[in-house]
Amino acid sequence: MENEHTDSNIIEGIVSSIKKAMHASEEYTIVSNKVININSKIKLDLYDKVRVDYTTENDHIRVEGVEIIGRKCLKEYRDILQNLVSEVNIERNKRELLERLKKPIREITLPMLQKMLNSADMLLRSFISGAPIIIRFHGDGDGAIGSIALYKALEKIQKKLFLNERGMKWLINKGITYDLESFYLDSMFFNDYKSVEKPIICIIDFGTNFGSNDAIKNINDRYNLIWLDHHNIEKEFIGVSKQYINPLEYGGTSDFTAGFLTGIFSELIAEVRIENLKEAALISDMSVYANRENYEAGRIATVVDFITGIRESTGYLDGPISPKYLVKILENQEKMNSMYSYANELIKEAIDAGMQSAKSYKSRNGITINIINFEKIASRFSGYLLPGRYSSKLHNKFESINKKSITIVVFRNYISFRIGRSISDEVNILEIIKDIKSNTEFVESGGGHKEAASMKIDETKVNIILKLVLNKLEIK
Ligand SMILES: [Mn+2]
Fold it and tell me: What is the structure's pLDDT at 254?
């Protein structure tokens, strides 16, 4: 029986992905001139050609019947997928992107472009055909903003090509490694699927260190990895491969941040205008390319820093942090205003407190070193302002007094360093960290960029380590 709000439709296409289910009916992705996700009680196999009768009612799709009309339709599948991918038109997106890019970003982007295009094509094929995808982004402003950019791009494609929603997994990564435990969780998720295209793990803004090596070894070629990062590449790190994209490999510096890089990647994938987001990523990570005059981008950076910084236990957030959640907040002016002013207030108070409690040292060549114990400050600000994030903001303040400043923030077993740009070459903090690490037993790990670095230490040895650092900075 027809009712006037219901549309009856038929679609014929090829099964490209299966989500196994123990007791319920399995879920299938069918590609045709559009993509549809359905549940079916009849068991289907990959490359089956099927005819699906469905009705739509207020955007909701209900399957009325499924019939298998062909088997092993490999060639047809390939043609259909190719058509769908062509509809996205990466080439046109690339041309338009290149028209917008200016020096010096353009010079760094050009040599990375081929790798980005290959990755974009790979991601699109898996995305469109329903292969499982996990996107892990670093839980700071830069990483989270990168995830928003990619989310917007994929959402745009979904709206264009899909008849109903396409699920995927977005995970915030608080740590800086892609470890074995994460990999096991990811492969468990993938195990529920059978798909023509490979599952994809996409990593944004973290993981470039030897702690990720074990996971990388385990990935082998069952899964595709797309990796967008801008951290220093340790010699021991084995992850530099086909789809590992890092501006540092192409004459760029970490100022070309991962959120910004993911923004450009997203612009290749879909026609999205995300200038403010890209700029916000630069601001959030204190990049030299940041344009601090861009008020809207500054607001985004502050609010995303705030959201990713507060402890979930404070109850301030009403959902887990995902790009979908972040977009909802960014699009709500009222929420933005209140979070923005609250975050700014906290920053101001915390910075005042830090300036008052800092221990200052002066080197012979005019460098001021300020050491702050973050413990007391942290407890007063509900977990927002992680030590790293805090160091950057506090350091800006110290730099406005003396350009030649070093800010050292200590928080339990963690020390964060910020070095003024004008002195970062002569100071070489990465060398100092490496030295202390190889000459003592007190350093668990350390690294970063030459203007922003950190180390994890044996907490009971913090005073010895600070003394060694001061020594190396020629302060007795
Ligand atoms: Mn970053």
Answer: 86
In this prediction the pTM is 0.83
- CB hemisphere CA count around 145 (13 angstroms): 32
Residue 80 lies in a domain: no
Q: What spacing in Å lies between the alpha carbon of 285 and ligand 1's midpoint?
A: 6
pLDDT tens, residue by residue, 249-302: 999 988 899 999 999 999 999 999 999 999 999 998 878 898 989 999 999 999
- Please give the pLDDT value at position 1: 47
Residue 100 CA to ligand 1 center (angstroms) comes to 23
The answer on 354 and 302 residing in a single domain is no
Ligand 1 centroid–CA 145 distance in Å is 10
Q: What percentage of the chain reaches a pLDDT higher than 90?
A: 72
User: What is the span of the domain harbouring residue 429?
Assistant: 344-472
C-alpha to C-alpha distance for 344 and 384, rounded to whole angstroms = 11
Distance 281 CA to ligand 1 centre (A): 8
Q: How far is the CA of 359 from the centre of ligand 1 (A)?
A: 28
| pLDDT tens per residue across span 110-161 | 999 999 999 999 999 999 999 999 999 999 899 999 999 999 999 999 999 9
Helix then strand then coil, % of the chain, to nearest 5: 45, 20, 30
Ligand 1 centre to CA of 102 (Å) is 21
Rounded CA gap, 13 and 47, in Å? 9
**Ligand 1 centroid – CA 283 distance (Å):** 10
Residue 393 CA: distances (Å) to CA of 36, 346, 411, 415, 452: 47, 12, 16, 15, 12
pLDDT digits (tens, 9 = 90+) for 345-386: 888 888 999 999 999 999 888 999 999 998 878 777 655 666
Residues 417 and 304 in one domain: no
CA 254 to ligand 1 centroid distance, Å: 8
Confidence of residue 312 (pLDDT cuts 50, 70, 90): low
DSSP per-residue letters across 10-76? EEEEEEEEEE--SSS-EEEEEESSSEEEEEESS---TT-EEEEEEEEETTEEEEEEEEEEES--HHH
How far apart CA 118 and CA 147 sit, in angstroms, is 19
Mean pLDDT of the chain: 91
18 shares its domain with 114: no
CA distance 135 to 186: 10
Looking at the structure, tell me whether residues 121 and 40 fall in a common domain.
Answer: no
* 20, 146: one domain: no
